[in-house]
Automatic annotation (TrEMBL), chains A, B:
This is CRP/FNR family transcriptional regulator. It holds the Pfam family cNMP_binding. One of its GO terms (molecular function) is DNA binding. Residues 53-105 form the Cyclic nucleotide-binding domain. SMART domains: cNMP, HTH_CRP. PROSITE patterns: CNMP_BINDING_3, HTH_CRP_2, PROKAR_LIPOPROTEIN. The keyword Transcription applies. Residues 162-235 form the HTH crp-type domain. GO terms for cellular component: cytosol. InterPro entries: cNMP-bd_dom (IPR000595), cNMP-bd_dom_sf (IPR018490), Env_Response_Regulators (IPR050397), HTH_CRP (IPR012318), RmlC-like_jellyroll (IPR014710), WH-like_DNA-bd_sf (IPR036388), WH_DNA-bd_sf (IPR036390). Keywords: DNA-binding, Transcription, Transcription regulation.
DNA sequence: GCTGCGCACTGATCTAGGTCAATCGAACAC
DNA sequence: GTGTTCGATTGACCTAGATCAGTGCGCAGC
């Protein structure tokens, strides 16, 4: 929560027509929800644009008091906890447009750490303000319920007992779909995280991730060059990830 | 959602002072949230008491349209999905007082199956009504956010890569705490689910669950007799489950 | 150019837990 | 009582993936 170059009163230099940043999921949601100028007073304290965070900088740490959720504007954020034996358990990667911190509401503290993997820009949304606004904008309330509910499902995905191949395929297809939905190429993208991060996310050893990548490449499913990924056999990868991504 | 002996207009025979059933988490929440008689009109369609469901009967199935969340009044409910190879993945067990179906909001369909493990009584809460009410009762809205947020955390617990011992210990201590918080004995309780269900929940083979139970018994951590559990060395079990249950 | 550093990769082993196959035993029907 | 059934248990293997130990290699600093 200690952010560099914080801009209080977010709307200040964004122009009058853009009360939410273009990449935020809430933007559309709020517009659809009957937002109008009469809500402007709240909006002035609702959104706060911050960043850039440098690679390795923390957005918040486990135990920090919670009062805002964040939308990624650019870059990638990793959330993780450190378990009893000091091992890092990666909980998720957040791409532009995705929302971080919904799991912090219940205990009013962030239950995990969040760190930027590259140069990251964020919007902070004051949660109390958001909630207050939601009582007057049923569509916004519904959107929040929906986002929260989605995150329950996402968290459950990881928990099945799947093979290293299935996990890895699902990880790649998941990224591909998410990039595609933001208008990036679904078939060529850069991994912004290390093999170790991927492994900690998939509950594998980083060596296993290397081996699976290599085998996928040998079998013509994809091309891997360092952190560059090219999907070559989408159908086969979809097939492998079907049991995890469901449908 | 095809319920036996449904009572429409839930309040009918519950007495005027008890607009929510005593075991429902919402009961307290709504009372704290400024609930008063003026909300009575909504309440008449908000809650619907149903049951009993017999062992093995389904409350809902994957893909059913969602319009209500359920609070368990008595008995145990198991939620699960069936993966591509036909294996059952148990997502959770729900004890009296716990809420089922929050993960269905996002897609307006239940994403899993729910089946009763013994004789089950439920309250259904119409979710649209609940949400509408929440716009006028900020405390209720907050409570819903909190429940949803909690479920994200719960779903993440399973997903770590922990040993069979840790998983099993965490499962037992989790049950123990949940029973305790409902006023039951934390040290002696009956498992309402089969070894296979436990194994499918913990992502182990049922044989492994048997072996861990036996070893825990040999080491004096607990006494197991069929489905009866007695916790003997709470400290050691807490220790084993610490990395999963986190504090 | 060289050197050093940190990932990424690869190969050789090890092991936790899965799988397979019996056996046991409580609960129920008769 | 006697079967019968179905989950639980136990033992004997086996295997996916972890671990350990190098090796390779792009890149930054000089």
């Amino acid at each position: 929560m200690t952010a560099p170059s914080r801009k209080t009163g977010a709307m200040a230099d964004d122009g009058d027509d853009l009360h939410f940043c273009s990449t935020c999921a809430f933007s559309a949601a709020c517009m659809q929800s009957g937002y109008d100028k009469s809500h402007l007073k709240e909006l002035h304290v609702l959104v706060e644009h911050v960043g850039p965070f440098k690679e390795g900088e923390h957005l918040f740490r486990e135990g920090d008091p919670f009062n805002a959720i964040a939308a990624v504007r650019s870059g990638t954020v990793k959330t993780y906890v450190t378990d009893a034996n000091g091992r890092e358990q990666v909980q998720g990667f957040f791409l532009p447009g995705e929302i971080i911190g919904l799991n912090a509401i219940s205990h009013s503290r962030y239950p995990c750490n969040a760190v930027s993997l590259d140069s990251v820009l964020l919007c902070w949304f004051s949660f109390p303000t958001m909630a207050a606004l939601a009582t007057r904008m049923p569509g916004l309330q519904q959107q929040l319920f929906k986002l929260l509910s989605e995150d329950i499902g996402k968290a459950a995905l990881l928990s099945g007992n799947y093979s290293a191949d299935e996990r890895t395929a699902a990880f790649l297809m998941g990224l591909s779909r998410r990039y595609a939905s933001r208008g990036f190429s679904p078939n060529r993208f850069l991994l912004t995280m290390s093999r170790t991060d991927i492994a900690n996310y998939l509950r594998l050893a980083s060596e296993s991730v290397s081996r699976v990548f290599r085998r996928f490449q040998d079998e013509g499913l994809l091309r891997v060059d360092r952190r560059e990924i090219e999907i070559l056999d989408r159908a086969r990868l979809e097939e492998l990830s079907r049991s995890i991504l469901r449908e």
